[in-house]
Amino acid sequence: MPLSPARPVPARIFTQAERQAFYDIVAARRDVRNEFEDRPIAEDVLKRILAAAHAAPSVGFMQPWNFILIRDPARRQAVQAAFAVANEEAAAMFPDEKQAAYRALKLEGITKAPLNIAVTCDRSRGGRVVLGRTHNREMDIYSTVCAVQNLWLAARAEGIGMGWVSIFRPEDLRRILGVPDHVEIVAYLCLGHVSELYDRPELAAKGWRARLELETLVMEEGWTGAAPEEEEDQSPAIR
Ligand SMILES: Cc1cc2c(cc1C)N(C[C@H](O)[C@H](O)[C@H](O)COP(=O)(O)O)c1[nH]c(=O)[nH]c(=O)c1N2
After folding, report:
1. pLDDT tens-digit map of 118-139
2. 8 Cα to the center of ligand 1, angstroms
3. Going by C-beta distance under 8 Å and a sequence separation of 6 or more, which residues neighbour residue 110?
4. Whose alpha carbon is nearest atom 14 of ligand 1?
5. Count of CB atoms situated within 10 Å of the CB of 201
6. Average of pLDDT values for 29-45?
7. 166 lines ligand 1 (CB under 6 A)
8. What share of the chain has pLDDT > 70, as a percent?
């Protein structure tokens, strides 16, 4: 395939409607646990979502990710069982007065969602010395998280809900999925069509934790001290 010349081409200017569509998708993305419908995701849709993930930035263009697609009900049952063990341990970590509220939350859609995806980071890809990772070894993990966020937004654009489940003993997932030691499991994701979604984070809707005010998080020129936590804002549209 002929390569295009190695110099910049004009940057496309997006229309106001295109920009707004992007911000609407960002604002309407949710972490989904329970609203999954029981119908498969079409292969062409899945391909586009994965292509969006693969278009993410990565340190030294390392592209350290793999996407393990998990559809087998028996394997998802095993993952669900691993979650249940860890979730019981998790509940016990909260102060007594929060444990009942924690146990009332639904924190995964592993068997309800028709598709699970484990996103991994191959820490050996691209060799030992990677451009941009020379002074911070975690940059390949951060890159993989960028891919997860692209995947999450693309899924929402396609009408697919996604939930991230992180309440596992890492060694349990590694065993169930047969992941080798040099590869880190960065995210375990549940995906499926959704026709209903919360209009704000479910944890906010259920009173677990409120969204912080953006203005309290922005600092000028240097660290000026974290502000005390404020009242919930109502997740306004981004305009
Ligand atoms: C790294 C990471 C890990 C997790 C999550 C997210 C991220 C980024 N979230 C989802 C999280 O609770 C959710 O994103 C916030 O509550 C905000 O809600 P929205 O994503 O805006 O709907 C999440 N949710 C859940 O029900 N079980 C889980 O184990 C996790 N784990």
Report:
1. 999 999 999 999 999 999 999 9
2. 37
3. 76, 79, 80, 83, 116, 165, 190
4. 31
5. 16
6. 97
7. yes
8. 94
Topology of domain 29-194 in CATH is NADH Oxidase (3.40.109)
- Amino acid present at 234: Q
Does the pLDDT of residue 207 top 60, yes or no? yes
* Encoded tokens for 115: 């598709």
Q: Where are the domains of the chain?
A: 29-194
What is the dihedral sign for C-alpha 112, 113, 114, 116?
A: negative
pLDDT tens figures, 171-192: 999 999 999 999 999 999 999 9
- ipTM surpasses 0.95: yes
Assess whether the C-beta atom of 156 lies below 6 angstroms from ligand 1. Answer: no
Ligand 1, atom 11, residue with closest C-alpha: 31
Question: Which residue has the CA at smallest separation from atom 25 of ligand 1?
Answer: 107
Measured from the CB, is residue 201 less than 6 Å from ligand 1?
yes
164 C-alpha to ligand 1 centroid (Å): 6
- Which ligand 1 atom minimizes the distance to the CA of 148? 8
